[in-house]
Structures are given as C-alpha cells and as structure tokens.
Amino acid sequence: MNLKTVILAAGQGTRMKSSLPKVMHKLGGLPLLEHVMNLAASLECEDVTVIYGHGGMKVRSELGHSHAAWVEQREQLGTGHAVMQVAESIGGDQTVLILYGDVPLLRKATVQNLLTGIGDNAIGLLTVNLENPCGYGRIIRNTATRRIERIVEEKDANDEEKRLTEVNTGIIAAQGGLLKRWLSELKTDNVQREYYLTDIVALAVRQGHRVESVQASSEDEVLGVNDRVQLAHLERVFQKQQAIGLMTGGVTLKDPDRFDLRGEIIRYGRDVEIDINVILEGRISLGDSVRIGSNCVIRNAVIGDKVEILPHSIIENAAIGDCSRIGPFARIRPETNIGDHVHIGNFVELKKSSVGSGSKINHLSYIGDTTIGSRVNIGAGTITCNYDGANKYRTVIEDEVFVGSDTQLIAPVTIRKRSTIGAGSTITKDTPEDQLTLSRSKQQTIKGWARPTKNRSS
Questions:
Q1: What is the reported pTM?
Q2: Between vectors from CA 97 to CA 56 and to CA 176, what angle results, nearest 5°?
C-alpha cells in the first residue's frame, strides 16, 4: 500500500492553560505527538506530514529528528482547512490516513483494520460509542441499511441527533484522488464558519461511495487530550497497559497501579520483581532475577542478572554488573560502570566512575571521576576531591586497596595495588603498593585544660 499519513497538530490547546503547545505535553515520557508519529512509523509509512500551528517552531525543534515533513497552518479554519495545506502533495494513487497529534493511545491493529476497507469506491471512518457523547460529532446512519450517510457536529445537531451515542473520532482514510476532490468541495456553511473535514463523508455518500466504518476498542483509545485532567487520565490508562504487558511477560509488579514506565524496557529477564512507586525512564535493560525496591528512579540503565536495588535509589545513564547490590538511598550518576558482585551502600554517590568486581563502597561516600579496581574497600565518609574550582581530575584506585574512613583523595592521584590508607587521611600524592599511607596530626592530651565558662557578670 502506498500510504501517506497526515497528522493534524495545529491546535492551540487553550484549555491546557500552558505556554507549551498541547501536542508537546508528555504521556509516558514522550510528547503526545511523538506517540502518534511512532504509530505512523510502525505502519511502515515513509510519507508522513505534520500540520503544525501554535508553537510550531518548538514542536519542530523537539521532534525534528523524525523523517516527517512539516507544513504550517497559519490560519485556524478547521480540520478540512488543515488537510488542504497538503492537498498538492497528495498522490492520486496514495491511500491517505488522517491522524491527530493529541490522540496518543490509538492502536496499530485498529488502524490496520481501518486501512483494509479502503479502495477506489470506499472511505474508511473510525467511530466509537460513548456513554456521554457531548462535544463530539454524531454518526448519522440510514435507518434501513445502517450505512453511514453523514456526520453532524454537535453545534449543528438537532435534539434527536444529539441523543445518538456513536460519534466520529476524526480519524479517516481515503484514496488520494478522491480526497483531493472532496477537499476542493468543502464549504463553511456551518455555525463555526470552518471547513469541516468530516463533511467529506456526506460528499462521498452523495457521489455513490461507501463509508466503511471501524469501531475503536474503547473510548480511551481515541480520546484526545484537551486539558490536564484528560492527560492525567490517559497517563494512568497508558501505565496500566504497560504494567499488564510486563506482568503477562513474567515480571512481578507489587502494585501495577503504582508503577510508571516513561520509556522502554528493551529487555527483561525471568523473575524480575519491582516494588511500588518505581519510575523507569528512557531505555532500560533488566537481567534475570533483578529486584528493585520501592521509590527507585532508574533512567537509561543496563542492570545485570541478580542485581538488588534497594529502596530510594537513583540510577541514571549507568551500567550495573551481575550480582551487585545498590542502596538504599544510593545515587549512581551518568557514565558510571559498576562491575559484578559490587556493593554500593546508603548515601553513596558515584559519578563518571568505574568500579571493579567485588569492591565495596558501603557508607556515606562521594566517588567522582574515579577508576576503582577489583576487591577494593572504601571506608565510610571517603571523598574523591576531583574539582579544584576550575578543572576536574581523575583518581585511580588499583586492585585490593583498603581506604580507611573519612579519607579525602585529592585528584589527580593514584592509590597503588594493595595500599592501605589510614582513616582520617588527606592523600595528595601517589601511594606505593603494599604499604600503609596516612596523614594525621599527632594526638595530644593537654593536662589541666578547662573548658571556657561564661562570665556571669556580663
């Protein structure tokens, strides 16, 4: 099929009460419009055009990485007028699919069903039955044949038509040559004085063409976002869908209603267990038997097999090796690589560092711009002082080093293999292998010293 997809994304979205264009508000970590563009890509459609308007330059700058063409609708004269902006680029032999940039949960299977019925003598229309159809255009069917005859917008509908519950979603597919002709015949003889795209349905029927309708699976699938209440509703629908998919695939979610995936799990192994209020963002890989404690945030990370991430930990742009333990209250910052069987404990922060297998940093430490070897023990309160106020430098801690508590390592510095650093030291020079290095003032006790007291006469 020679498919062309046109995505209408020019709406101002005044009910969002935001300086951000409506289609740029995020659902599941992605802009609403990006969800729709991803749907078009999944249909293997190489000819995608986005009709933009309000805040268009921001929309293009954020999503310009896509292969879509961008066309501006300078005047807001209705959905028909929006599609008119690309009429000249529509090929007569193309099938044209009209989508909306604020309808993020439309399913690929639904669209494929819609496209199946398109031919030289038919137009495809996606409809849905609503308990409360207020605000939607109603589907008018022939009482005898049940064929669709036209769509009436609510502002133009009479009382009997307003009682109908089957409504138009606005999602249409048609043969390109026919669509171009119908666009040229649209009029503005309606309450809003706009070019309604839906009027092409009545034009098609009058000219002897069939309207093949497909029903959406649910109201949520075709719900457009007009305000923040609807956005929040669809966020929970989307998250529940993702949670069900993960649980069906074998992941244990302690409470699927308290789980957020704002990106993509590109891989997950067997027996993964995720506790409540975990947020996964970006691209995530989870190995076998991974356990993630409550209230963790993990972003763009590769987590190996049998890793335990304890509660309240943050991992961002990092890799964690097999059988390691992170947290609680640990922060793993970007460009950090942690080896196998590593322990990173409570209130430990790592940044741009690598940690070799079997090493331990269990308490209250900052490790930045550091290379740590294998089987290293970092004592509580250790800091790598990597910044001199202007430049950053690297610390190297070789295999089997023991660093005592409350130590400052002033970069650039190398701690050689099997070195021991005495607690409370400030290390400014490279240390030799197999030796104890420390820097301390001599401990003294001053006999007869008395603690100062307040002068009561003052």
A1: 0.89
A2: 110
